[in-house]
Write a structure and sequence with these properties.
By secondary structure, the protein is an alpha/beta fold. It has twelve helices and 14 strands. The chain has a ten-stranded mixed β-sheet with strand order 1-8-2-3-7-4-6-5-9-10, sandwiched between helices. The protein has a four-stranded parallel β-sheet with strand order 11-14-12-13, with helices on one face. Strand 2 and strand 3 form a beta hairpin. Helix 1 crosses helix 5. The radius of gyration is 20 Å and the shape is globular. The structure holds threonylcarbamoyladenylate and magnesium ion. Threonylcarbamoyladenylate (TXA) binds next to strand 5 and strand 6. The site of threonylcarbamoyladenylate (TXA) has 28 residues, from strand 5 and strand 6.
């Protein structure tokens, strides 16, 4: 048995064995919270059908009750556990058109089914749903007869966790979870892409499934997916989800975004109290100008940049620096998700 006593020394992180997954499913059924690996970031999971358990998520994260949660499912055969079923034909067609992207880092927002309590959706008539690809998340979801509501397992507005240790570190949620299943480092490192389905599909949050991939499958223009709806449009409410507020994912240390390479004359000066996040290896004389450098990839590969970004931000945030200077990239493809997160993280500093 895992020890459930309240003790600071209680071990919380467990390897992803069948036994751990079985015990996690038991804890979830009993209304407790679990730290769950996914391919994007670690989630703070609760039984999505249990409103008392879901309320614990909001309390643990200090998350505003107005910010709805994503419901995680074991497979598309369980969409009716969360969505209105059958959904309107246009949404059914869109789900079919996107089928090859699931399981994976894509969340869809569609009409909410009757089993999902108000607490999950913040009273909205829509619900956000995703089928994660991480093998441990899949095994856990298959072991549960209910879907899992799971936001990223960080305090509200702090950086999302991409390692099991992040869930329980000094700024984390160790006090709130029965256990964390260690599924290793998250492969993508940025949260899932969120897409609002319907007559006017909209990208609500960029992620590693790109706007271009979605536009191709839905047969709409990329610009159409990105368009902000006018006041009075029925989509406006969904788009103005509180989770889309500007300041989010922020380190406590001021974050300064560097101009794109080529315009480096405009860069703020480095210094002995400054940390640097580099998207690729720096020349030694450049690296020497900073107290600490975190290198996210050898050659600027954006998949590696996304995978390593949040852990690097957390390490530098814990290093007592005056500021963190961070590289940027052009906001296309996966670069859109990276720049979205960086702009939010830097919003307080800008
Ligand atoms: O990759 C991910 O999506 C991770 C992992 C754990 O699955 N989860 C995650 O959850 O990032 P969270 O709670 O940190 O972000 C969920 C976002 C919020 O911005 C929220 O406002 C939005 O989804 N959201 C949830 N339900 C919505 C709805 N019905 N309409 C519009 N936005 C919604
Ligand atoms: Mg989050």
């Amino acid at each position: 048995m895992l020890d459930s006593s309240i003790s600071g020394r209680r071990p919380l992180i467990f390897p992803a064995t069948e036994e751990t997954i079985r015990q996690a499913a038991e804890r979830l059924a009993a209304g407790e919270l679990i730290g769950m690996p996914t391919e994007t970031v670690y989630g703070l999971a609760a039984n999505a059908w249990d409103r008392t358990a879901v309320a614990k998520i909001f309390a643990a994260k200090s998350r505003p009750a107005t910010n709805p949660l994503i419901v995680h499912l074991a497979g598309s055969e369980r969409l009716s556990d969360a969505l209105q079923w059958p959904p309107p034909p246009v949404i059914r067609q869109q789900i079919d058109a996107l089928a090859d992207l699931w399981p994976g880092p894509l969340t869809i927002v569609g009409p909410r089914g009757p089993k999902i309590p108000d607490e999950v959706t913040a009273g909205k008539t829509t619900v956000a749903v995703r089928i994660p690809a991480h093998p441990v998340a899949r095994r856990l979801l298959q072991a549960c007869p209910f879907p899992l509501a799971a936001p990223s397992a960080n305090r509200s507005t702090y950086i999302s966790p991409t390692l099991a240790e992040h869930v329980c570190d000094a700024s984390g949620l160790g006090h709130a979870v029965a256990l964390v299943i260690d599924g290793g480092p998250c492969a993508h490192g940025v949260e899932s892409t969120i897409l609002l389905l319907g007559d006017h599909p909209r990208l609500l949050r960029p992620g590693s499934i790109t706007a271009e991939q979605l536009a191709e499958r839905l047969q709409v223009a990329v610009e159409e997916l990105q368009r902000q709806p006018p006041a009075g449009d029925s989509n406006r409410d969904a788009l103005l989800a509180p989770g889309m507020l500007r300041e989010h994912y922020a380190p406590a240390t001021p974050l300064v975004l560097l101009p794109l390479a080529g315009d480096r004359d405009a860069a703020p000066p480095a210094g002995p109290n400054i940390g640097r996040i580099a998207f690729q290896r720096l020349a030694p004389h450049e690296a020497a100008r900073y107290r600490r450098v975190e290198t996210l990839s050898d050659n600027g590969d954006l998949e590696a940049v996304a995978r390593h970004l949040f852990a690097a931000l957390r390490r530098l945030d814990a290093a007592g620096l005056r500021a963190i200077h961070c590289d940027t990239c052009s906001p296309q493809g996966l670069g859109q998700a990276i720049m979205d997160r960086l702009r939010r993280a830097a919003a307080r500093t800008e």
